[in-house]
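Title: Comparing notes on inverse folding

I've been comparing how different people in this forum approach sequence design from structure. To keep things fair, I'm posting one structure and asking everyone to reply with a full sequence. Here's the target:
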């Protein structure tokens, strides 16, 4: 099971933490993630609202690349619908070079109404724009020289002059709707999703993963476990009650600022099971359940809603130093049985 960090970097300008302080906090958490053995540090892209304070993840990841040595650096997601695919390919090829081949590219079509309005993009066009731009970005990152006349982008004998170090940059496609899992799998792509936006209960994660695997198997693919990744809010503490005391207000603040999202508070997320909140024992048991569903990669969202940095870092440590050793030990026992 791979464990990564996901940072939305929600900003609350009327509160005490400034934007430079937020960036400094998250960069320090990236350095700690590198030290603790997290797989990847994923950063969200958002625009025109404090919903998320990183409009260009490539800039943030390039900065983090200079502070880390092992940690992979990812987007969750790069919103291809809004950008020239040439610029996307060039920017992230540079991140791969600056990080010595550590880029993972999560991509999606966007879903926030105010972002489509800000960029002047019709939501009805988003799927076509995304599909066209993804094809171009993939081909450019693979080193192709492209001539094509598309609906939104026309290229005449164009190749990027900065090539990624990796022969193949891992690309994950984000989904919001359950039925999309099958289609992403059928195309042989990797999948990324946020369960609380896609399903209503923890057990339904397994159903969505099964649809993804069904699509991949029909297309002739067999490497399923590490081809899907999910994101869950995470806070690990000594006890379940301590996790609640530390994280409840921050989670509720975070959810209250999620535009157009499902309304939920801490009690709701505990009832649905769509989080990794709790003691070491509680979280380890849930990670094992995810493993049994066939999941091979979980992104933990640990910095949210002004949660104090010492609590974020303590949770990060508990996850890697206590939760995951228990999970690995349980997996070893299962294999030996």
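Reply #1:
Here's my take.
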């Amino acid at each position: 099971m791979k464990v990564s960090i996901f940072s939305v970097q929600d900003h609350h300008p009327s509160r005490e933490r400034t934007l430079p302080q937020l960036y400094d906090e998250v960069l320090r958490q990236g350095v700690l993630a590198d030290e603790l053995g997290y797989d990847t540090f994923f950063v969200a892209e958002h625009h025109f609202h404090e919903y998320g304070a990183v409009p260009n993840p490539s800039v943030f990841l390039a900065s983090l690349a200079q502070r880390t040595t092992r940690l992979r650096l990812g987007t969750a997601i790069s919103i291809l619908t809004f950008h020239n695919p040439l610029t996307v390919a060039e920017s992230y090829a540079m991140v791969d070079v600056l990080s010595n081949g550590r880029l993972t590219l999560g991509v999606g079509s966007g879903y926030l109404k105010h972002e489509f309005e800000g960029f002047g993009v019709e939501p009805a066009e988003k799927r076509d724009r995304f599909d066209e731009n993804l094809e171009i970005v993939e081909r450019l990152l693979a080193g192709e020289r492209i001539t094509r006349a598309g609906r939104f982008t026309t290229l005449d004998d164009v190749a990027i002059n900065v090539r990624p170090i990796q022969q193949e940059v891992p690309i994950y496609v984000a989904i919001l709707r359950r039925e999309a899992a099958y289609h992403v799998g059928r195309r042989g792509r990797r999948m990324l999703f946020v369960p609380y936006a896609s399903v209503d209960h923890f057990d339904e994660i397994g159903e969505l993963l099964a649809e993804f695997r069904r699509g991949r198997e029909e297309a002739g693919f067999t490497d399923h476990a590490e081809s899907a990744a999910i994101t869950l809010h995470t806070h690990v503490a000594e006890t379940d009650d301590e996790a609640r005391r530390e994280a409840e207000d921050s989670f509720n603040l975070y959810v209250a600022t999620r535009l157009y999202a499902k309304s939920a508070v801490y009690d709701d997320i505990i009832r649905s099971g769509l989080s990794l909140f709790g003691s070491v024992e509680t979280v380890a048991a849930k990670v094992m359940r995810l493993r049994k569903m066939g999941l091979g990669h979980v992104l933990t969202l640990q910095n949210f809603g002004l949660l104090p940095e010492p609590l974020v870092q303590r949770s990060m440590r508990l996850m890697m130093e206590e939760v995951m050793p228990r999970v690995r030990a349980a997996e070893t026992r299962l294999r030996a049985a």
